[in-house]
């Protein structure tokens, strides 16, 4: 089964954790993370050739960078190989939205430095998202795997370091709250850093691929809290934490942030290279279902404030939050 998909996974499908009872049928921790990172690299590689790009880039103030928006339908990783028949393929397809933006690597108005991107998006990803996203009202850490038990992982020729995995309970509330029920997501998040360009092909590198890059990936997978597949203590914690009338919703996402040193593939550490010669490339792709009575076509609509418009707005929300944090120090 594909890991990066909109259909949520049961808790019985994730690696063992010290709080779980012993179960030999659970997947190996390293293999699970390797599979998720491989699928993320594969998806990122496929987006330019399979998604449709909006004719114009979109502003997202106060960010100086404009945002390229791409949209496309795709099948989960395993379904592409196993599905038979066009009708069945259509049923399994998921609507994905991707945004891409390039930011000058500086601690200045309308942009952010590499260290600020790392601090805001790599560390405490969910907690920081709550600080800059108005609708996120609560984040609770349900599970966390010790980084020393994970170590470095090599996937498709890329060595990932600083690998973390956790499960968070994330609640969004909306106004008027009497009319719109809260949405709660259970997200398994994998974050990993790397040096060098992630590549899923054996083809010769293009000119852009010859640039020196470092970056990090964040992969988020949806889980569901069915009582039959969720450890009892964990199910009780989830039930006690969510607000009344909440609707459990789902999303999957991949996020890649890269520091690109154009033409600077030298032996010098990136910190010794001029910031003016570097850009930060920020890519995020997601598929989601808010559940409840909100039709999918509304969620896919830019004009009605659906996912495409929301992901573009996130760029400005993050840059604005980063600027406020900078001024406060």
Describe, in plain words, how this protein is organized in 3D.
This is DUF3074 domain-containing protein. 33% of the residues are buried. The protein is an alpha+beta fold and 329 residues long. Strands 1, 2, 3, 4, 5, 6, 7, 8, 9, 10 and 11 form an 11-stranded mixed beta sheet that branches. It is globular. It has helices at residues 29-50, 77-82, 86-92, 114-122, 125-132, 232-241, 296-299, 307-328, and strands at residues 52-53, 68-74, 94-104, 136-145, 153-155, 158-172, 183-195, 212-223, 247-248, 250-261, 278-289.
Topology:
Elements: H1 29-50, E1 52-53, E2 68-74, H2 77-82, H3 86-92, E3 94-104, H4 114-122, H5 125-132, E4 136-145, E5 153-155, E6 158-172, E7 183-195, E8 212-223, H6 232-241, E9 247-248, E10 250-261, E11 278-289, H7 296-299, H8 307-328
Parallel strand pairs: 7-9
Antiparallel strand pairs: 1-2, 2-3, 3-11, 4-6, 5-6, 6-7, 7-8, 8-10, 10-11
Strand-residue proportion: 25-35%
Total number of helices:
8
CATH domain topology = Alpha-D-Glucose-1,6-Bisphosphate, Chain A, domain 4
Mean pLDDT: 88
**What would you call the shape?**
globular
**The CATH H-level homologous superfamily:** START domain
Largest sheet entry: 11 strands, mixed
Radius of gyration in whole Å, from Cα? 20 Å
Helix/strand/pairing category: alpha+beta
Number of domains: 1
Q: Which second-level CATH architecture applies? A: 2-Layer Sandwich
Fraction in helix: 25-40%
User: What is the number of beta strands?
Assistant: 11
Task: Report the uncertain regions.
Answer: 82-90, 199-210, 264-275
CATH class: Alpha Beta
